[in-house]
Amino acid sequence: MMTVLLLTISNIFMTFAWYGHLKYKSSPLWIAILASWGIAFLEYCFQVPANRIGHRHFTATQLKVMQEVITLIVFCGFAVLWLGEELRWNYFAGFACILAAVVFVFGFEPEKKPVPQSSSPVTAQFQVGSEPANASKRGAVILSPTAPQVETGEQGAGTNLSGDPL
């Protein structure tokens, strides 16, 4: 419950930092920026502890989703009470779509796909002392599923795993 409270307070500050200046369009932009920056600092004073405390009980993704839902609620109140805007039905429909997205993204267990097993692992071949036709300079790294693994000797001469020189 402490996490929700701190995130709500944080979002109130964040909303004022981002949109509060819209009520004072005649003030110079630099004043709006400085005032918003100062309010944003207060927002972080609540948001950072909220996430620290909340991460003991929730995943980071759960915290983010919680924050987005709180943001929508806080912003609706702000738009009506501070900016004097009217909330229309299509805004609520849009908010419902966002909430539906949350359900679709987090409400279903993802399919577990089997990890493909390959008979030959992908390896990196390091060309030492010679340039392949498709490399522009020495020391090019070529990634190929069929490239042999390379070991280098003391002089940098490359050999494959069978000991044959490259």
How does the SSE layout of this entry go?
Blueprint: H1 2-19, H2 29-54, H3 60-81, H4 89-106, E1 123-126, E2 141-144, E3 150-152, E4 158-160
Helix pairs in contact: 1-2, 1-3
Structure write-up:
The protein has helices at 2-19, 29-54, 60-81, 89-106; strands at residues 123-126, 141-144, 150-152, 158-160. Strand 3 (150-152) and strand 4 (158-160) form a beta hairpin. The chain is mainly α. Helices cover 51% and strands 8% of the residues. The strands form 2 sheets. A two-stranded antiparallel ribbon has the order 1-2. The protein has a two-stranded antiparallel sheet with strand order 3-4. The longest helix is centred in the N-terminal third of the chain and has 26 residues, at 29-54. Helix 1 runs antiparallel to helix 2 and helix 1 crosses helix 3 (60-81). It folds into 2 domains: 2-106; 123-160, no CATH class. Residues 135-145 have low confidence and may be disordered. It is extended and about 75 Å long. The N and C termini lie far apart (65 Å). It is built from 4 helices and 4 strands.
